[in-house]
Amino acid sequence: MTPDISAPPRSVSPTTTAPAAPVASSTWLLIGAVLLLPFLAYFGTARAIVAIWQRSDTYAHGFVILPICLWLIWQRRDDLRPLPLKPWWPALPLLAACGLAWLLAELGDVAVVSQYAFAATLALGAVAILGLPLGRAMAFPLFFILFGVPFGEVFTDPLINVTANFTVDALRATGIPVFREGNSFTIPSGSWSVVEACSGVRYLISSVTLGCVFAYLTYRTARRRALFVLAAIIVPIVANGMRAYLIVMIGHLSGMTMAVGVDHLVYGWVFFGIVMFLLFWIGSFWRQDQPVAESAAPPAPRTYAAPPKQFALAALAIALAIGIWPLYLNYLERGQHQAAAAIDLALAPAAGWTAAPALEDWRPTFPAAGAELHQAYAGTAGAVGVDLLYYRNPPEGTKLISSMNRLASSERGSWTERGATVRVENVGGRALELRETTVGRTGAKLLVWQWYWIDGATTVSGFKGKLMQVQQKLLHRRDDGAAIMLSARYDEQPDEARATLRAWMNANLPALESTLERNRRH
């Protein structure tokens, strides 16, 4: 029997080619609820992010990040409409991992990690409920959500050093003699300091954010996009060094009458605006436009949509993967605020040491602690300043370990940090690791030895200290911790101050640690 070849071939799987049935409005409402769920579950984190946007000009761009993400998705709506709509179950363990990271960050009071975990949950939640094909098509807009996290302060000190090095080298290459001390330097016409506002971190954050959007919209190949983003990182760093050099030169050539006040900042932003315009203008020469459609055909229909029951089950699973962590955090924190005796930091000096007037008007730039001791002691070896900050159940925004906690801040006084290193001292037959920092101002220098005391153990590492704090809370212990700073004067040779600090520690460290331990146990 001969087959009838004129008959159309039978479709093996008609459901894979036929348009999917319209998605029910209840399903869209469920999808919307899932997308909004992270804001509800991690409301405190979202509120903290918005608070930083409001108070810091450096991160004010955060207000437009989500609108830009939505606009980028809307621009691709015709490409997204035909893609299958179905939950992607492998996203659930990733959501749970983000939730765990958020929990640990909250316990350790590492705001930036909890904020990134929250932002990642927003993106992963969308992929989990909408499906992997849609997630791939929206990869960059979802990734761009991470730019809303206020991050970048960690680069301030390295950028200050880069800017100071560039400025001093450029001045010397110009033939101007420079005397440099840390990030401060003096030229014949006056003195200058490279402080936080001069680091260029604002320029760098703005450039990278705009550069990523520009690269995504302008280029089609990963190579061109990566090269432009790299340029958006390098150019503002170099431009900030050039900006600082030009400002110093304007002040120098004008006899310190220009570029030393508000115009200092105005010149900086004008210069940065010109540099960014040139960067994007040059980058546009290699743009890769989207191919123009040959015909204005109507958008293709969706090829597949999962049944409503599958979305309901996925929404429940996503809610569990996201919501279990805030509930567990609440359980852990209920045992943290236990009644405890008042903190008493009274410290009786050892024989040969007596209370003395303060060495200088220097104070560490730390948030107010539950109890503080600021006292100087004098002995035959010299004078030592003791700054002891004891934290217990600190209020929100107050942290023992934070990148914002500094030994000196140019925004709060004339003292500046002039270099730090980690060293090990032998005290009472045991090795004690500490951070040695020089802080100074015109006519005065202090050598500061600093370390953290957390739950009876010591460390100089902020990372290790955060892990110790997390362990405290997971084991339902009190979150007692302290920052210890010892300081001594010196003129030219820091070894003089080291000898004084070493003598004080050998005589008084046991009593100091006994005081801390007594408070921890009561």
Q: Can you describe what's shown?
A:
The chain has 522 residues and is α+β, with helices and mostly antiparallel strands. The protein has three domains: 22-151 and 305-334, no CATH class; 153-187 and 196-286, no CATH class; 354-521. The protein has helices at 25-41, 43-55, 65-75, 77-80, 91-108, 111-130, 132-137, 139-144, 156-174, 201-218, 222-253, 262-283, 308-334, 462-474, 494-521; strands spanning 179-181, 184-187, 190-193, 354-356, 371-379, 382-391, 416-427, 430-441, 444-454, 457-459, 481-489. Strands 4, 5, 6, 7, 8, 9, 10 and 11 form an eight-stranded antiparallel beta sheet that branches. Strands 1-2-3 form a three-stranded antiparallel beta sheet, with no helix packed on it. α5 (91-108) runs parallel beside α13 and α11 (222-253) runs antiparallel to α12. The model is unreliable at 1-17 (pLDDT under 50).
